[in-house]
Amino acid sequence: AHVVEADATDPPTLRQLGAHEFDTAVVAIGSDVEASVLVTAALLDVGVRRVWAKAISDQHARILDRVGANRVFRPESEMGERVAHLVSGRMLEYISLDAGFVLAELAAPRSLVGRALGEIGLRAKYRVTVVCIKHEGDSFTYAEASTVVQEGDLLVIAGAPADVDRFVNLP
User: Fold this and answer.
1) What's the whole-model pTM score?
2) Who's near 115: CB < 8 A, 6+ residues apart?
3) Residue 128 dihedral angles phi and psi, to the nearest 5°
């Protein structure tokens, strides 16, 4: 491994370091918005195909997006949202895939135990989909209409955040 101290906002310097040969670069500058934006732009200018950039605010994220970052992430904000969902209810896991779609893992609500997923009509009633299910002592498997929910099952559901939150609070 090599360590280099250089001005990453300068495209000729990035070319000299071989950055133009990278498939992916991650810009993890959080506290200096200007430097973050300039480095992201410089990496794109030298031909890096995928640039992931960290943002510290919604405005910073919008700027990075407009500059052309392929993926903008806000780790502190994303983790805060995830933890808030986990500590406030029955969710064991919560993953936001984008603003309008999440996956959540939870213990099966008692009101579903003993019933087949197809007869419950989760998509029609609650606007969520059970992606997979784990019976106690088994591994996760794809959920099917004929799958009967058992006491102690874990479900992974997908849907809009508000719909998932509503479903998670079933008795």
Assistant:
1) 0.65
2) 148, 149
3) -130, 160
